[in-house]
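TODO from last week: model DUF4396 domain-containing protein.
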Amino acid sequence: MSYGTFPIWLHSLSIAWLALGALCAVVIAVDEFRCPQKMWVMNLVWPLTALFGTLLWLAAYYAWGRNAPEAGNRDSDPAFPPMVLKGTSHCGAGCTLGDIIAEWTAFAFPKVAVWFGWQTLFAEKTFAVWIIDFIVAFLLGVLFQYFTIKPMRELSVRQGVVAALKADIASISAWQIGMYGVMAVIQFAWFRSSYGSLAKVDSPEFWFAMQLAMLAGFATSYPVNWWLIRAGVKETM
């Protein structure tokens, strides 16, 4: 697997878009410090999703997330599509944090990728790291969901874990499928085809690609979350 030099316009665009995502996340975090979310886990969800959603998620936060009404108060809840956006973002926050942790861990300790099949099952390290991405994202997504569902439904620990698993298995899987698909297109069909190399984890181009891939993950997970919320499997945020 080779890593090369990308054109200056792509390098500059990547840095600018990453900076924009970081700025939007900081703006939301500062506002949440002054006006905390009623559901504490959403204090993590909004900044994390702004890292890839940038201005779109900043606008969504001020439109539907800031000072959100109590969950379950249907009279004051926003329209259903924004509720699905928040539910999907809840899933996406776990995926975002999980992918950040997994990618940097595999970068710092390549042996971890070997444990998951690099050089044995996969010639490309990327595919082994995707397995790690999924596992860590899934665990964090379920953890986020647990701290949402358990108090809202007043469940025991076991019941909360089971409910969180039911709520997030399909949602996170759909997110990761969309994310992997676009990441593969960018890395292999664009970067490698056009520039002869993949983007390395410590490059701005890699994380710019990840921002675009996360948006794709949101798009593939949104209809799944729509169904899960309609069916009562997943709570509204």
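Done. The chain has one domain: 8-230.
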